[in-house]
Design a protein that fits this description.
Elements: H1 5-20, H2 33-60, E1 64-66, E2 68-70, E3 72-81, E4 83-93, E5 96-100, E6 105-110, E7 117-118, E8 123-127, H3 130-155, H4 159-191, H5 197-226, H6 230-255, E9 258-260, E10 265-270, E11 277-278, E12 291-296, E13 301-308, E14 320-325, E15 333-340, E16 350-357, E17 369-375, E18 384-392, E19 397-399, E20 402-409, E21 412-424, E22 427-432, E23 439-441, E24 454-456
Parallel strand pairs: 1-24
Antiparallel strand pairs: 2-23, 3-18, 4-13, 4-17, 5-12, 6-8, 6-11, 7-10, 8-9, 10-12, 13-16, 14-15, 14-17, 15-16, 18-22, 19-20, 20-21, 21-22
Helix pairs in contact: 3-6, 4-5
């Protein structure tokens, strides 16, 4: 059976097409293939970076949902009448004294505890005094010696000394008479040629010596009769005064081993313990204390405040004020501005003001927080009030011992430092940082940072 020519041609054509589709496996490579590979990796890296950036923007720049509450003004706790400004400060003692030692020594006895009331002159601490007592005894001995010397000079010579010197004069006179007689005999013999010139010279020298001894004996007797010189007495007097001054100094140092209260007041702090060293001045890292206790008169208290420069114009010296301690909001004290700092604090933009408390009692203690309402003279038919600023308790955050809130401004938040006082009914009384009417973040505030975008739920 003959093959079909048309079918054979079709098979040949199909084979040619298959051969044309074979992959070229030759050794030659494209000249730019090696250069295209790094470009592909760079493109992949760029895509990854873009995806990461988009994810960051999506997760971290998206607004955070929070709850918010308004800062209130409490008129129930306000001061009605003629109050023009309210500020918060601290109770301080007008005069706080750190009682120190005048001499170096080791603490032997302590007679007070923190909170004790003491009177002026009361002994607070005693130091070991054995060395100081020894110095006092030595100084007293030196004074006794100098006094005896002065008394001796003032008393002059004793009668026995005068008789002794008179006897010396008589002896010298007798010696001189004997020497003169011997000289006369020797001179006659020399002229007669019996004695030698040497014997005459010896007799002459003995006579002159006897004369000199007689003169010395007379002068000694005269000095004994007159007594000591005025200059010697003055020197002895000066030495006695010097010894007395040394005794006074040593007695003062001994007395300073008893450290006494310089004023009547209350012990705020007991600084030293028995066995510790105290010294008038600090010596490097010796560890010695320079103070033993701190005292203050708690009947002389002040409220120390930092007033903003924008509010300072409302105040003046002597202005009346009402004082309310944060610990006892139901107690009120009267006072007046007793001190205004002569210069402002540039860093805080404030001026320090001190208000004297006219009627302090045991409830008011140093370092307490207190609110001061400054009053003005009443104007006919007018009254004003200063309200308390209250912030929700859940809005207040704390970090590193400081308090802050996040104030909502538009669609972002601002972190603001504040100072709060007493808590009441789920709110804190704001002493500094807020003025009332602000909106603060509550739920979700602990996840915020300064400047974050937010949306308020509800």
């Amino acid at each position: 059976m003959a093959s079909n020519p048309k079918s054979k041609e079709d098979q040949d054509s199909l084979k040619k097409r298959l051969r044309s589709l074979k992959i070229d496996r030759g050794p030659e490579k494209s000249p730019d293939r090696g250069q295209r590979v790094p470009k592909v990796w760079l493109l992949v890296l760029a895509v990854v970076v873009a995806l990461v950036a988009m994810g960051y923007l999506y997760f971290f720049s998206a607004p955070k949902t929070i709850s918010a509450a308004e800062v209130k003004l409490d008129n129930n706790g306000s001061v009605q009448g003629n109050a023009v400004l309210s500020a918060s400060g601290y109770v301080v003692a007008h005069h706080k004294i750190a009682v120190g030692a005048k001499v170096m020594g080791r603490v032997k006895w302590i007679g007070v505890e923190k909170g004790d009331k003491v009177q002026q002159g009361q002994v607070l601490v005693r130091l070991e005094d054995s060395e100081f007592r020894a110095q006092v005894n030595q100084a007293r001995a030196n004074v006794s010696e100098a006094q005896a010397r002065l008394d001796q000079l003032r008393a002059g010579s004793r009668p026995q000394e005068k008789l002794k010197d008179r006897a010396g004069v008589l002896q010298a006179e007798a010696t001189l008479r004997n020497a003169e007689a011997e000289y006369q005999r020797t001179e006659k013999l020399y002229r007669a040629g019996v004695s030698s010139k040497a014997e005459l010279d010896k007799a002459t020298a003995d006579r002159d010596t006897a004369r000199a001894l007689l003169e010395a004996a007379k002068q000694e007797s005269a000095m004994t009769n007159i007594g000591p010189r005025v200059e010697e007495i003055r020197v002895a007097q000066a030495q006695l005064q010097q010894m007395k001054a040394a005794l006074d100094y040593s007695q003062t140092q001994l007395a300073d081993t008893e450290i006494k209260a310089p004023v009547t007041g209350t012990v705020l702090q007991r600084i030293v313990e028995r066995g510790e060293m105290v010294t008038p001045t600090a010596f490097g890292e010796s560890g010695a204390r320079t103070s033993v206790v701190s005292l203050a008169d708690l009947n002389d208290l002040q409220i120390e405040l930092d007033i903003s420069q924008t509010d300072f114009a409302r105040l003046k010296m002597g202005q009346r004020a009402e004082i309310i301690p944060e610990a006892f909001p139901n107690l009120k004290y009267s006072g007046f501005i007793a001190e205004i700092a002569p210069e402002a604090d540039r860093a805080k933009a404030t001026v320090q003001v001190k208000v004297k408390v006219e009627n302090p009692d045991e409830q008011l203690r140093p370092e307490m927080n207190a609110r001061v309402n400054f009053l003005a003279e009443a104007t006919a038919g007018q009254s004003s009030s200063v309200s308390r600023v209250l912030v929700p308790k859940e809005a207040v955050l704390r970090k590193d011992g400081k308090e802050f809130v996040f104030v909502v401004k538009g669609n972002r938040v601002e972190m603001r430092s504040i100072r709060v006082g007493q808590e009441s009914g789920g709110y804190y009384h704001v002493l500094e940082g807020l003025s009332g009417g602000e909106t603060t973040a509550t739920a979700g505030a602990d996840q915020l940072s300064d400047g974050d975008r937010v949306t308020i739920s509800g």
